[in-house]
Amino acid sequence: MFAKAVRWMAVKKPRPKMKPMGLQMPPELMYTIIDIAKEDGDHTISDTCDRLKNAGHMEDEEPLGEERDEPVHLAVSNYCDQTQGHKKDEEPLEEVRDESGNPMVRETCRLIGLRHIWNKKLEGELRHLLRSLNPHQLSSVLRSQSDERVAMSFFYWADRQWKYRHAPQVYYTMLELLSKTKLCQSAKRVLRLMIRRRIDRRPLDFCHLMVAYSRAGKLRSAMRVLNLMQKDGCGADLSICNTAIHVLIKAGRLEKALRFLDRMQRVGITPDVISYNCLIKGFCNANRVEDALKMIREMPIKGCSPDKISYYTVISFFCKEKRVQEVKELLKEMKIESNLFPDQVTYNLLIHVFSKHGHADEALVFLRESEEKSFRVDQVGYSAIVHSFCLDGRMDEAKIIIEEMIGKGYLPDVVTYSTLVNGFCRIGKIDQARKMLRYMYKTGCKPNTVTYTSLLNGLCKIGSSLEALDMLNKSEEEWWTPNVVTYSVVIHGLRREGKLKEACDLVMQMLGKGFFPTTVEINLLIHALCKEGKAGDAKKFMEDCQSKGCTINVVNFTTVIHGFCQEGDLESALSLLDDMYLTNRHPDVVTYTVVVDALGKKGNFEKANQLINKMLHRGFIPTPVTYRTVIHRYCEKGRVEDLVKLLDKMLVKQEFKAVYNQVIEKLCAFGKLDEAYKLLGKVLRTASKVDANTCHTLMESYLKKGLPLQSYKVACRMFHRNLIPDMKLCQKVSNKLIAAGHSDEGGKLLIKFVERGHTLPQYQ
Q1: What's the CA gap between 279 and 298, in Å, rounded?
Q2: Secondary structure (H, E, C), 30-87
Q3: CB-CB contact of 135 with 171 (8 Å)
């Protein structure tokens, strides 16, 4: 009890609030970046830390500064003149030692790996090891975890142990690890804990937090870190400023990064080559390569010479744009202006970038140039050129490069050979691909799964999917293991050739091997079966996939329901719709639209009304396809009154201005002109150009039926709404009226044009 009481007092004892250490900046040195905060909202990510907190792995900490929607300021102090003697005395960074081979570190990692079967004994062993580890060893334990969330969980578990507190180096390591992930909230909690424990915070720690926010897509929060850093009393230095520039460039905010650089220089923080390189990268990303070159040429004037990275960034941009001449000129400039000579790394970069973007000829030019200068191009460089030639289908040039490689003692590996096999298959030369496969065995280079998958894909493309299936079934004899891509390639080939039974059987075989096709692949097979009138087989295939643990979604169900509807089997379609509710796969608006269309086709409008009301009650918003489907079926059967009531309910959920235009035009198409005329008032409310076209359609329909007087009435209603009908159409109506003995109406129609200032064609 005493021990518990002491521990409770130690935990619950209130701590005095810390006063900011460091110099408070005068207002003239505060750089307002409110525009960054306002323009860039935070993007959400899955916060895995909440789960760890609920599991008891995380403490509730005090907030690290205010984060209201208020102006965010950055105190960029004059690091050279004003903050000397006012900043915290920073301890020199300890050298990171790799202790991963230490027996205690390995044993600790083993016990952490057994966390899913933890008991009191294992936890006691881990607690004992924890007290024996020094900070370097504990940091190695954290770095050894493949999942940073596991490292974070262990970090908080260790921090809760009796008579133990993490050394500052452990906090620094944890922040460094979290900066490589999107777990920005976890990084912020670690920083809060450092404040509570009064552990010195370095600018580098705030850099880690800023990078974590940036990785999570939260630019606004990332820039707030600058304000939090100033409130904490940590003096700004070049590293945090470079991080801020990097974050802005990654977010595509080049102009704000330039303004930030200008403010840095005004307050005395001199940018280095890293600062300029970030901006050069931003210029290239924004296709402002001339500005990037201008910055490189101005760097020596500002006391900072460009390095090779500065030039490589622009060179990479030129390579993507296939601007070889500019690359050569920039290489000369790099040599003359900056005394930087192209080396092996430079040429390897040029070869790889040109090859990556499909410019094999240009890459080959630089390969020859590097050889003339006695630079060694490695096997990877040759393979990159081979890959580029194969993508272009230039297999003869690719074979020449392969022969050259062999002649220079570079034996092609399985990746290079697989590229050749894929290249032959892309241009339909399957025999050459087979020969290459046999040659691989002959030279002792065993083909891998990628090699065989490329060959199977080539066979499927030329319509030999059964041969590909046979080769896949003999994979064990050939000592290679197919993967999910291999199965998918053959399945798609069988489906394209109409061999659906074999494709479905292969899916079952695939599931038996532990590979799961995607819902899209399953839906393609279901759709193909339904297209052949085998909706029953499609349903059975879907149920078999579901029973074997494959993911089945609402799209798969909808495809089968549509198949039953096309076959006229409404009973099976409605039964499957009920099954969706039972299996907690709720239909979407497409599902309802498909069933309503089938019900309308059969004339079962009572059930169709129920389904539409159910869809609206569940909150689904009708799509334009839904409107067109409902309008078509109801107009086809002449159920105009029911249609109007239904449309009024649908329009409450989603406004659709041209809905009654479609109704009138569809009624005209079905010859139900009287019903169309009754709805004309709903169209003439807006008097737009679309409404005029609808009225013209109704007028022409009346003329085709020999009812010019009804066309005249439609035109008069248009004039009444200040909507001018088509003059040529009205002349046709007038001629028909005069021919039918209605000369007064015919004359009045043309007079209405004259009254509105229009000149009739015969009097022009």
Answers
A1: 13
A2: EEECHHHHHHCCCCCCCCHHHHHHHCCCCCCCCCCCCCCCCCCEEECCCCCCCCCCCC
A3: no
Scan for tokens 């807006």, then name that residue.
686
What distance in Å separates the CA atoms of residue 252 and residue 246, rounded to the nearest whole number?
10
Which distant-in-sequence residues (6+ apart) come within 8 Å of 610 by Cβ?
none
CA distance 227 to 223: 8
| Residues with Cβ within 8 Å of residue 556, at least 6 apart in sequence | 519, 522, 523, 526, 542
Does the model's pTM come out above 0.85?
no
- Residue 501, Cβ neighbours under 10 Å: how many? 13
CB 408: neighbour CB atoms within 10 A?
12
CB 74 within 8 A of CB 31: yes
What one-character-per-residue DSSP string does 307-353 give?
Answer: -HHHHHHHHHHHHHTT-HHHHHHHHHHHHHHH-----HHHHHHHHHH
Question: Which tokens in the block code for residue 257?
Answer: 């990064």
Question: C-alpha angle 388/394/397, rounded to 5°?
Answer: 85
d(CA 649, CA 56): 50
Residue 229 has, within 13 A of its CA and on its CB side, a CA count of 30
Q: How confident is the model at residue 69 (pLDDT cuts 50, 70, 90)?
A: very low
Provide the 3-class DSSP secondary structure of residue 574.
helix
Determine how many CB atoms are found less than 10 A away from the CB of residue 564: 25
Helical axes 727-739 vs 689-704, angle rounded to 10°: 30
The CB density around residue 293, as the number of other CB atoms within 10 Å, is 19
Question: Quick check: 623 and 586 in contact, CB under 8 A?
Answer: no
Q: Rounded distance, CA 233 to CA 168, Å?
A: 18
Q: Which amino acid is at 93?
A: L
Letter for the amino acid at 359? H
Any idea what the Cα angle at residue 266 is, between residues 263 and 268, rounded to 5°? 110
* Residues 6 or more apart in contact with residue 198 via CB below 8 angstroms: 18
What is the gyration radius of the CA atoms in the chain, in angstroms? 37
Every domain of the chain and the residues it spans: 29-80+97-268
pLDDT at 49: 33
Q: What is the per-residue pLDDT across 467-476, written as a single tens digit (0 to 9) for each? A: 999 999 888 8
Tokens representing 495?
């489906």
Q: Report the C-alpha gap between 550 and 523 in whole angstroms.
A: 12
Which residues pair with residue 30 across a beta bridge?
75
3-class DSSP state for residue 588? Answer: coil
Q: Chain centroid to CA 172: how far?
A: 32
Tokens coding 242: 């470079």
Region of 250 please: left (phi>0), alpha (psi -120 to 50) or beta.
alpha
Cα angle for residues 338, 341, 345 (degrees, 5° grid): 125
Q: Per residue in 75-88, pLDDT tens?
A: 333 333 333 333 34
Give the model confidence (pLDDT) of 490-514 as tens digits. 999 999 999 999 999 999 999 988 8
Side chain identity, residue 197? R
For residues 187 and 220, the answer to whether their CB atoms sit within 8 Å is: no
Measuring CA to CA, how many Å separate 740 from each of 495, 674, 729? Answer: 63, 20, 17
Angle at 71 between CA 66 and CA 72, to 5 degrees: 65
Tokens of 439: 């040659």
Cα 436 to Cα 420: distance, rounded to the nearest angstrom: 8
Pick the CATH number of 29-80+97-268 from 1.25.40.10, 1.10.10.10, 1.10.240.10, 3.40.190.10: 1.25.40.10
3 state SS for 85-97: CCCCCCCCCCCCC
Tokens 């990692």 identify what position? 109
Task: Tell which residue, 168, 96, 93, has the closest CA to residue 137.
Answer: 96
Distance from first CA to last CA of the chain, Å, rounded? Answer: 110
Distance CA 456, CA 467 (A): 8
